Amino acid sequence: MTSFPYLTHHRLRAGMVGLGMIFEETYRPLFENLRADGLYRRDFGLVDVELAAVASRTGARAERYRRQAAGRMPHFESFASADAVDRLLAHGVDAVCIATPDNRHFEVARAALDAGKHVLIEKPSVLRLQELDELDALARQRGVLAKVVYHKLADPDHKKLRTHVADGVLKHVNNGYCSLLEPKQISGSQFAEWIAGRNPGTYVAVHYIKLIDFAFGPDWRLTRISATGQRGLVGPAAGPTWDSVQLQMIYTYPDGREAAFDIHTSWVTPDNFPGYVEQEVQFRFDNGVWNSHQRKRGVEVTVEGRTPTELKITPNHHYSSGFLEPWGARSQRGYGIEVLRRFFEEVAFVEFGGLAGERLTRLADVRGLGYNDLSADRNTVAVVQALEAILERHAQGVPGSMVEINCERGGLVLSVPGRAEATVLYPERV
Asked: Which residues contact 308 (CB under 8 A, 6 or more apart)?
């Protein structure tokens, strides 16, 4: 008997942990789009993706969203307080999206995976390789997906860069410079919970760390990491909260040539800066140079009394933006939403894309997608763990530390200037 999966109708119940700016800009329009149109692909049919429950610290944003979405979205449960995540997991969700501050990812993801839920985690997935190992093993034991959101990999500019590299148009990257700067109004309000005791490198730089590792690898190895930064604006000058961070990563090719990448990040750019975020990259190859400025995509706008505060002079309409379509409908789309939709397609393919007896094969196929699988996040988490350790020593009055990767003493080894002993941050190979 012939099977026609494209004629079937299924349902996926999603849980959302964290309802801050990231939810508002990407997850909210995604769930509203899926509510209106469903999720459809010929290999798994039609899937209704339902936002079934949310978990947050106070529940205030959930209640506000309920009022705003009245008539567009069905009822969803809102769980708050210390046991909110446990209650959400007990509510019968199939997949959990995690958009909390990065130092809270691990515990939520571990609980969700242990409960047998597919998991999507905002970048960085976790802060230590030990945590990554535990989550990856747990996902395999429970037979579910564990994925990471790197929405910039779906940016048309970044996709084109990787296409040129894969096709041999750009050959052998030698060095690169990446800069990502955010105004104070972003870090001081929407990201206020991220700031205390944190740094913009861990949160902001990871997109470029992943881009470099994914677009130009795998025929090299991560070798050394160093970093410095500045303090005193969003926290005490002698405290653990960083205004800006400068990170350098060194990769080594099999022939011994090295490639150096400098990533500069900040979340204290003045509020009257004309963009929500300043992003630019330059990569030098043996046969060319790639320059990309994510803010200046050819559009500038000035509206009296509205720019550059409410509206930005140089907007990015590619990330997530609302549109009035020529046929009169209102829509919200962009690569920030596209990459989240892809996660639900991957879950739907695993669960509904064929015979039940072939699920493990489909699961293995989707896990093999290195752009977002947790198992492919090792180099990114290694850089994050090294950066956190270097900045912690710096905050203690010892700048200039360096981390070596996969040396004789361990997988991540921190060396402090003037000291013979070294600290092994991660003993196994990265």
From this structure: 272, 273, 274
Q: Enumerate residues 6+ apart whose C-beta is below 8 A from 377.
A: 124, 125, 132, 148, 210
200 torsion bin: left (phi>0), alpha (psi -120 to 50), beta (else): alpha
Rounded distance between C-alpha atoms, residue 120 and residue 99, angstroms = 9
Query: Which residues share a beta bridge with 423?
Result: 414
Identify the pLDDT of residue 174: 96
Supply the pLDDT for residue 204: 80
Quote the radius of gyration of the chain (alpha carbons, Å).
22
* C-alpha count within 13 angstroms, C-beta hemisphere, residue 62: 21
Residue 331 carries which side chain, given as an amino acid letter?
S
Q: Which of 336, 363, 324 lies closest to 277, judged by CA? A: 336
pLDDT at 316: 80
Tabulate helix, strand, coil % of the chain (nearest 5).
35, 30, 35
DSSP H or E run through 230? strand 221-230
Pairing of strands 402-407, 422-426: unpaired
Q: Which of 9-13, 107-111, 417-421 bottoms out in mean pLDDT, i.e. has the lowest? A: 417-421
Neighbours of 336 (CB within 10 A): 24
Residue 25 near residue 65, CB atoms below 8 Å: no
**pLDDT value at position 328?**
86
Q: Which 8-state DSSP code applies to residue 191?
A: T
Average pLDDT over residues 285-308: 83
Complete DSSP assignment for 156-187: HHHHHHHHHHHTTSS--EEEEEEEEEEEHHII
pLDDT (0 to 100) of residue 323? 87
| pLDDT value of position 107 | 98
Pairing of strands 288-293, 244-252: unpaired
- Helix 206-216 with 156-166: angle, nearest 10 deg: 30
Contacts of 34 (CB under 8 A, 6+ apart): 48, 49, 341, 344
pLDDT (0 to 100) of residue 373: 97
Return the minimum-mean-pLDDT range out of 29-33, 139-143, 179-183, 379-383.
179-183
Confidence grade of residue 327 (pLDDT, cut at 50, 70, 90): confident
Tokens of 240: 């653990």
Residue 166 CA, chain-centre distance (Å), reads 23
